[in-house]
Amino acid sequence: MSEANFPPCPECGSEYTYEMDPLLVCPECGHEWNPAIPAEDENEAPAIKDSVGNVLADGDSVTVVKTLKVKGASQPIKAGTTVRNIRLIDAVDGHDIDARVEGFGQMKLKSSIVKKI
């Protein structure tokens, strides 16, 4: 029986990985992965998606999908309001979009309440 040289587990670093076609398996932590697919860069931020699963990018235009109450404002942001030239930011309390909303000014929005145009 020949011994194969498999890479260590990317999750726990265990050297006791084994092959279970087409995956590699770690017996210590139970992690399974496909060595043919490169692992995501840990420094790369995960993609931010809108309410229907479209990937958002800086500069996109979006539509608000539900009416939003705004603290200190007399009127809400109505569903269907278009927000242009969004900027993606690191999430703060779930708010991962920074944008200027017409009539309201600069504010942070959640990607779960917008839809890409």
UniProtKB/TrEMBL annotation:
<protein>
    <submittedName>
        <fullName>Alkylphosphonate utilization protein</fullName>
    </submittedName>
</protein>
<dbReference type="InterPro" id="IPR013987">
    <property type="entry name" value="YjdM_N"/>
</dbReference>
<dbReference type="InterPro" id="IPR004624">
    <property type="entry name" value="YjdM"/>
</dbReference>
<dbReference type="Pfam" id="PF08274">
    <property type="entry name" value="Zn_Ribbon_YjdM"/>
</dbReference>
<dbReference type="InterPro" id="IPR013988">
    <property type="entry name" value="YjdM_C"/>
</dbReference>
<feature type="domain" description="Protein YjdM N-terminal">
    <location>
        <begin position="6"/>
        <end position="34"/>
    </location>
</feature>
<feature type="domain" description="Protein YjdM C-terminal">
    <location>
        <begin position="48"/>
        <end position="116"/>
    </location>
</feature>
<dbReference type="Pfam" id="PF03831">
    <property type="entry name" value="YjdM"/>
</dbReference>
<comment type="similarity">
    <text>Belongs to the YjdM family.</text>
</comment>
